[in-house]
Amino acid sequence: MRFLDDRRPGWDLTYDDVFMVPRRSAVASRYDVDLSSTDGTGTTIPLVVANMTAISGRRMAETMARRGGLSVIPQDVPLEVVAEVAGWVKSRHPVFETPITLSAHETVSDALALLPKRAHRAAVVVDAARRPVGIVTESDCDGVDRFSRLEDVMTTDVVTLTDDLDPRGAFDVLAGTRHRLAPVVDHDGVLVGLMTRTGALRSTIYAPATDDDGRLRVAAAIGVNGDVALKAKTLLEAGVDCLVVDTAHGHQERMVEALRAVRGAGIDVPVVAGNVVAADGVRDLVDAGADILKVGVGPGAMCTTRMMTGVGRPQFSAVLECAEEAARLGRHVWADGGVRHPRDVALALAAGASQVMIGSWFAGTHESPGDLLVGPDGRAYKESFGMASARAVANRTSADGAFDRARKGLYEEGISSSRMFLDPVRPGVEDLVDMICSGVRSACTYAGAHDLAELHERALVGVQSASGYSEGKPLPAGW
Ligand SMILES: NC(=O)C1=CN([C@@H]2O[C@H](COP(=O)(O)OP(=O)(O)OC[C@H]3O[C@@H](n4cnc5c(N)ncnc54)[C@H](OP(=O)(O)O)[C@@H]3O)[C@@H](O)[C@H]2O)C=CC1
Ligand SMILES: Nc1nc2c(ncn2[C@@H]2O[C@H](COP(=O)(O)O)[C@@H](O)[C@H]2O)c(=O)[nH]1
Ligand SMILES: [K+]
């Protein structure tokens, strides 16, 4: 990456402060851009879901991995639950979605409770042998008594797809029969998954992030306290593909000790550590055994650290400096936090990040763990909260005595309750992934880059004024 006219400013920058200048390009199509990472995590798109309890759970993990990304299960989740989640993710089909299944004698009320768990808002009704006998959507349940049985409301005109059909073939069947989605069955007619028309299209564009056995990948986080080596080994035995050692201030001695302990335990998956924002932090954590550095103090949407402490660093400069140092040492960085638009992802990658972590933006999707709630204005939302908020600290310390809990409760650097509204046009995390990847692919072609290494190499970045930034915003309602 080069600054325009080689003018590197003497102050720090964040994503809004910078822009990329188009370069002469030989990349003919946005589909010719390869978004896979080279940091050893096996992703095919450079997106990682942040280790936040309100955001990263099993549904998020399977959905993201199916499209080539990775999710980090947070350190606040008990190890035995993380093991169960990892096993579940690995048992999911790498191409077909996991359907909601109900039986014909269950009720409309049962279906309505489960439908918001899926962006495609449908359930498959199956018989005792798990063969599809009907489909139920919200419109089937409209104006019907909630205790009605599904056999009385379901659509029985079910088109099924066989599991040997390729995604293009599945798309054509769905388009030809004017169906939005269909159950996928094996040669005995038993349900193995679900395919939507958009999902079939996506399967021709994305490749799942899979391990050597073809199973979906998942990452998990641990903190720096307790027996970190034992925790790391337990997670690896559970099948976790990438380990994140995470604390607010990553450049601290306890982190160095934790990393040494993890490395001493012979952990052979990529180890990510953070958070840091400067080259000396990168050096020390690489020296202690980190393969990847997590970069960002204070940019997160749920984060009050900069307001509470004055500590942090504008994220673009933090990523740039850490990525330069990591590359010098043969390591990588993940840009963590502060992403609000696809452009922020493109700029983080231009600065040299191998992945971009997203938290709050993905909280407002069907795949985040929380229940779908509806505000008085009818807008759907999910609740989110920061991992250093009073709410998260209270959860994390629930096993401590009252005195210790009270002491720890004094330190709060995050928001305990926020509403992340679902975008009615993009209510699923895959809709947001589509938007982000389209933006990043397009950014690569403007830069003349076939892949992310070339994007970083060729990016020409200028510094803009606040009015330069606002000029780039669309004005859908005139001015
Ligand atoms: N990227 C960011 O800007 C930030 C991210 N977070 C996220 O919140 C989650 C919780 O992290 P964390 O608060 O570290 O909690 P942890 O549970 O990981 O514990 C932090 C430990 O480090 C000690 N510590 C010393 N100095 C600090 C400090 N300045 N901030 C926090 N702990 C300190 C604490 O001891 P004692 O309590 O005695 O001081 C405690 O033992 C993580 O996921 C983290 O990434 C949190 C804040 C900022
Ligand atoms: N200072 C705090 N930082 C937090 C907290 N919870 C999460 N985080 C950090 O934010 C990113 C995600 O950023 P986002 O803008 O995409 O939401 C996450 O990975 C953490 O590093 C918190 O309570 N306080
Ligand atoms: K912030």
Brief overview, please?
The chain is α/β, with parallel strands linked by helices and 479 residues long. The chain has helices at residues 58-66, 79-90, 108-114, 138-141, 150-153, 167-176, 197-205, 228-237, 253-264, 279-288, 305-309, 315-328, 342-350, 360-363, 390-396, 402-409, 429-447, 452-458, 466-471, and strands at residues 2-3, 18-20, 47-49, 70-73, 100-103, 122-126, 132-137, 161-162, 181-185, 191-196, 219-222, 242-246, 271-276, 292-295, 332-336, 355-358, 373-374, 380-384, 418-421, 460-463. The strands form five sheets. It has an eight-stranded parallel β-barrel with strand order 3-4-11-12-13-14-15-16, surrounded by seven helices.
Percentage of residues in DSSP E strands: 15-25%
**Strand order across the largest sheet:** 3-4-11-12-13-14-15-16
End-to-end C-alpha gap = 35 Å
What would you call the structural class? alpha/beta
Domains (count): 2
Bound ions, cofactors and other small molecules, one mention each: NADPH dihydro-nicotinamide-adenine-dinucleotide phosphate, ligand LQESDW3C, potassium ion
Overall residue-averaged pLDDT value: 96
CATH superfamily of the largest domain: Aldolase class I
Pathway: Purine metabolism; IMP biosynthesis via salvage pathway
Organism: Marmoricola endophyticus
GO biological process, one term: IMP salvage
GO molecular function: GMP reductase activity; IMP dehydrogenase activity
